[in-house]
Predict the structure.
Amino acid sequence: MSKIIGVIAGSLRKESFSKKIANGLLSMAPEGVEFKIIPIDELPIYNQDFDDHHNVPAAYVTFRNAIQSLHGVIFVTPEHNRSIPAVLKNALDVGSRPYGKSVWNGKPAAVFSNSPGNIGGFGANHHLRQCLVFLNIPVMQQPEVYIQKSHELFDDAGNLKEGERKEFIAKAVGAYIDWANKNA
Ligand code: FNR
């Protein structure tokens, strides 16, 4: 049976560079591993009343079950105002509750931040790591993945262009799989 690694893109945008990078990762899964996009687009903003009053949205149930079944997660995050987009924070919050039943616990993760700018989402990358510490999600330390000038990565069909930058991303994926196998 394949190990399933979830890939979560922290953007709602149809033409999102993060979503395109996430899609580009799918074919990089080595034998015995399946990469699976976990959508976060339909998650209502977290409200503890849903859990406290047994009124949990169907989208929460689907998402929590999907995360629970994973062996690990790759977060592909853009940067919003030097932090993570609200939609990604919301997904972390939804998966973390009800209290004591977080589905994130212990899932080994990698953080791939990206931006059309020059610093590759450094702020988002490290804000995300702060949340992951609390959620007890161990995170690959090296290589750090800050993907700058993200708008230049794709061909006209939206696929990752061949070349050094795609090779770097593939190497980071390989490093993550090796590390996750040791840290699962
Ligand atoms: C941005 N953007 C941005 N970029 C960056 O490098 N650092 C930042 O702090 C911000 N802040 C920011 C805030 C908000 C509200 C938006 C909408 C955008 C630009 C951002 O990197 C760009 O829009 C990316 O294309 C967003 O990622 P996706 O949607 O392409 O995955």
User: Anything to note?
Assistant: Helices lie at 17-25, 48-52, 58-68, 86-96, 122-134, 164-183. The chain has one domain: 3-183. Residues 11, 13, 16-18, 78-82, 115-117, 121 surround FNR (CB under 6 Å). The beta strands are 3-9, 33-37, 72-77, 109-114, 145-147.
